[in-house]
Amino acid sequence: MDDELGGSVLPPPMSDVVCPFCAMACDDLTVARARTGQLRVTANGCARARTLFALPALPAHCFIKGRAVPLDEALDAAAALLRNAISPAVGGLAADTEGISAALALAERLGAVVDHATSDSLFHGLRALQVTGAMTATFGELRNRADLFVLFGTEFDRHAPRLFDRIVRPPTALFREAGAARGYLIGPGDGPMPEGFERLSADLIHAPAIAAALSQLVAGERPRGQRVGGIAMEDLARVATALREARFGVVGWVAATLDPVAGDVAIEAFNRLVVTANASTRCAGLPLGGKGNALGANYVCAWQYGVPLRSRLGAGPPEHDPLRYRLKSLLAGGEVDALVWLSALNGAEVPDTRTPMVVLARPGQPLPYDPEVLIPVVIPGLDHAGSIHRGDGVAALPLRRLRSAAATLPTAATVLNALLDRLPASPLPVPIRETAHV
């Protein structure tokens, strides 16, 4: 009898599979595979995981301006485009660790700017970290100990789909009653609330003021006024009391839903609230979001070059400037004349720009128009092994190869290394700056 996935006999399901499709990197999925290569999440996956794991392993062609060509011809065309570039950039960077490392090596050879597709949210947190520091905890510690969650943001089911069943109200926990955590959601929305949670409706543009008022209340001070950001002071006082009385409180946020201009100011206020709460109890910050292995891309850049993303590599010492080298701004200003865009994972939609592009994307990736060169690549964690960094910043989780039907397509790292082989060696060796050791 045929199984419902189209194979004659269904192979045994694979357990403890890591999902690469959001920063939670859930590592408890069970995935079934048909002989055709079709995958299906049968346990523990969110709606996004079920959709993306089920993407078919379709054969795909390379294209030059919409014309199908062999891989070697596409690589030659891409190399010719990049050799003539004066102000190139390497962006997207939604890939596994090896793919990101190869993309940065290409950027170094080109003297290119590097940036991730979702770096706006990432740099809100980095700027706040520089100003206030941060007190955070691992997902495991929060799962096993936290009993109160104060969460700023919206669309948690989109940015961290399994937040509640994996961390907030898990079926089992080591040092607290499982499923007993309570909390508050602060932000817009009117949908159903998780059990034990209360919504305090507010526009997130007021998040810095709300968090600052909570800090004062937790410290025993009374802010002026009767309302902050549309929330009654009596309601904020209840939240402050809950933070003081919690055994382990959590202040969490989805950076992508904060004010795009002042998200770093909001996160500074969250960090200060966490520090204030720690004067009387235990509290930790929980930043959420970051698709496409954004944190991993930033880590790899820092490990290999000593600077974060939004840097220019290869033209002398690495040069970091988070404002000057924000790729979205450079593209909008027409300051890039060749763009390599890496989108092997979700979270790096191809930008709608007229900048000449070399796109490395998974088959079926939506495109605003035909780029100069399109090279399809396989998906990490489905079609090849690798690693991805979890959003709490402490674990690089292994990705497994789950199917072989797409074996005819290359990995992102393979394509990027082949491009490197077609480019001349950099005429300017990168000098090493000596740093005094303390």
Computed CA radius of gyration, to the nearest angstrom: 23 Å
Unreliable residue runs: 427-438
Mean pLDDT: 91
Helix count from the secondary structure assignment: 13
Q: Give the helix level as a range of percent.
A: 25-40%
Just give the CATH class of the largest domain.
Alpha Beta
CATH architecture classification name of the largest domain = 3-Layer(aba) Sandwich
CATH fold-level topology of the largest domain: Rossmann fold
Proportion of beta-strand residues: 15-25%
Number of domains: 3
How would the global form be characterised?
Answer: globular
C-alpha end-to-end distance? 70 Å
Tell me how many strands there are: 21
Sheet of most strands = 9 strands, mixed
Strand order of the largest sheet: 5-4-19-18-17-6-7-15-16
Structural class of the secondary elements?
Answer: alpha/beta
Protein name: Formylmethanofuran dehydrogenase
Q: Can you give a write-up of this model?
A:
- This is Formylmethanofuran dehydrogenase.
- There is one protein chain.
- The chain is an alpha/beta fold and 438 residues long.
- The chain has helices spanning 47-53, 71-83, 97-110, 119-132, 139-145, 156-159, 163-168, 207-218, 233-245, 263-277, 294-305, 327-332, 412-421; strands at residues 14-17, 29-33, 39-43, 62-64, 67-69, 88-94, 113-114, 148-152, 182-186, 197-200, 227-228, 231-232, 248-254, 282-288, 311-312, 319-320, 338-343, 357-361, 373-376, 386-389, 396-399.
- It has a nine-stranded mixed β-sheet with strand order 5-4-19-18-17-6-7-15-16, covered by helices on one side. The chain has a five-stranded parallel β-sheet with strand order 10-9-8-13-14, covered by helices on one side.
- Mean pLDDT is 91; it is low at 427-438.
- The protein has three domains: 14-53, no CATH class; 60-117 and 292-422, Rossmann fold (3-Layer(aba) Sandwich); 122-288, Dimethylsulfoxide Reductase, domain 2 (3-Layer(aba) Sandwich).
- 30% of the residues lie in helices and 20% in strands.
